[in-house]
Design brief:
The chain is α/β, with parallel strands linked by helices and 435 residues long. The chain is built from twelve helices and 21 strands. The strands form three sheets. Strands 4, 14, 15, 16, 17, 18, 19, 20 and 21 form a nine-stranded mixed sheet that branches. An eight-stranded parallel barrel has the order 5-6-7-8-9-11-12-13, surrounded by five helices. Helix 2 runs parallel beside helix 9, helix 5 packs across helix 6 and helix 8 runs parallel beside helix 9. The radius of gyration is 23 Å and the shape is globular. The protein starts with 11 loop residues before the first strand and ends in a 5-residue tail after the last helix. It binds pyridoxal-5'-phosphate. The site of pyridoxal-5'-phosphate has 18 residues, from helix 10.
């Protein structure tokens, strides 16, 4: 059965058994743009944005949604997200430049990262970025100094680490004690940071932020952390900490495989907003503006990667390798996190499975396997494979390993498609080289 639940909203299988996304057949998209290609379904992107805005703002009036650019961003996508009223989370000067270049205002942009460089902070201040989320004592002093030199007062949040384990992959867990991110509440560093930030002449401390990790399939860690961070904040009321903003970060899970059932956006909103309201009530604290930062949950499910099958190697009694024309260069997640994906033969999308195969990439690493043990109909060279939920942390983490050009990005909607990033050429690969 076609796993519709992991494909974009508009995905369907037509009468010929071909996968259709945004009204375009995968076959036609592959013919027009070549493979590998990443297809983003515009309707799904917009629907996810609207779900976040509506589910959170109906429970916490004035709530803001800031899209986490590291999941994937480019100027055309930034325009779509800006049209939907989202702000942006950036983690580098490059992401900030991309948002500025898209024409979106920077007042709802939040600059994150555990080691922002002096140059990045100077650029952010010069462009009047809305918010810097300060992550370390080093940054606190540096930013205060740089804002002073620029003659400005910078609005900041402090990133605190609540010491809560969200039970996701260790490489994507960020809010525990043993993490490079944030000021730990447990060790007392967060308390020192609050006092230091309140005393900083050129910084305006307007609230606190935490981010647990990603993807977080459980609701309870958000509830516990929200309560804990607000109670921590309340201890500093007399010293002048006004919680105007509160951010529980992002990390909302998506289903990568048909058996996964993550909470809905409404479930996350209900958990976070009810913890926020109840705790503020209990503490007699005014409700801060809530800022949520989804990345994966907006762009992940909107994306489908299309690959062409080339070599097929059957090792009797061991395994059958089906090699495609992309791999770890455009999707490092299976190699990095043992991420799991569904695979569909886009030109035989309704056919019953008849064998179990491993999908291998074309890169010179034995670990370059996109999916293992997947049940597929009989595969032939030339078939088109579709890997859903590829919008997040695939193209954004892409590399030119083996000097393969990175694939194009296509936005599909209502039966038409447009290129929002072209395929790299060999010239692009050598663009920065000096001879
Ligand atoms: C990565 C990150 C996010 C987004 O995480 P997703 O899993 O993509 O939703 C949000 N906030 C911060 C601070 C992050 O580092």
């Amino acid at each position: 059965m076609f796993p519709k639940s992991v494909f974009p909203d508009t995905a369907e299988v037509n009468a010929d058994g071909h996968l259709v996304i945004g009204g375009c057949t995968a076959q036609a998209l592959a013919d027009e743009y070549g493979t590998p290609v990443y297809v983003l379904d515009e309707a799904t992107i917009r629907a996810k944005c609207r779900a976040f805005v509506s589910e959170f703002s109906q429970r916490a009036p004035g709530a803001r949604v800031a899209y986490a650019c590291k999941a994937y961003i480019n100027p055309a996508l930034a325009r779509v997200l800006n049209e939907e009223g989202l702000g942006f989370d950036v983690v580098s000067g490059g992401e900030l430049a991309t948002i500025a270049n898209s024409g979106a205002g920077l007042e709802n942009v939040y600059f994150h990262g555990n080691n922002k460089t002096p140059q990045e902070l100077e650029e952010a201040i010069a462009q009047n970025i809305g918010w810097v989320v300060v992550d370390s004592f080093h940054e606190l002093e540096l930013l205060d100094h740089l804002a002073g030199e620029a003659g400005k007062t910078q609005d900041i949040l402090l990133r605190v680490s609540p010491g809560i384990d969200p039970h996701t992959h260790v490489y994507t867990t960020t809010g525990i004690l043993d993490s490079k991110f944030g000021f730990s509440i447990q060790t007392g560093h967060a308390a020192i940071a609050v006092r230091q930030a309140l005393a900083a002449k050129n910084l305006n401390l307007r609230g606190l932020h935490f981010h647990l990790g990603s993807p977080v399939f459980e609701l309870e860690p958000y509830r516990v952390a929200t309560e804990l961070v607000l109670r921590f904040a309340a201890e500093f009321r007399e010293e002048g900490l006004q919680m105007q903003h509160f951010s529980p970060g992002g990390g909302f899970a998506v289903a990568y495989t048909r058996d996964q059932q993550p909470p809905s956006v409404a479930d996350y909103a209900e958990t976070i907003c009810s913890a926020l309201t109840a705790t503020c009530d209990d503490l007699g604290m005014e409700l801060p503006t809530l800022v949520v930062e989804p990345g994966r949950s907006i762009i992940g499910p909107a994306g489908v990667a299309l690959y062409r099958v080339g070599a097929i190697k059957d090792i009797p009694g061991v395994r059958k390798f089906v090699s495609v024309d992309g791999g770890m260069g455009d999707n490092i997640r299976p190699a990095l996190y043992e991420a799991q994906y569904e695979v569909v033969v886009a030109n035989k999308a309704n056919a019953d499975p008849s064998e179990t195969v491993t999908i291998a990439g074309k890169y010179c690493e034995s670990g370059d396997l996109l999916a293992q043990g997947v049940a597929l109909p009989e595969i032939e060279s030339g078939d088109l494979l579709a890997i859903p939920v590829s919008g997040a942390y695939c193209p954004s983490m892409a590399s030119n390993y083996n000097l393969n050009p990175r694939p194009p990005m296509v936005l599909a909607a209502n039966g038409s498609s447009r290129l929002i990033r072209r395929r790299e050429s060999y010239q692009d690969l050598m663009y920065c080289d000096v001879v």
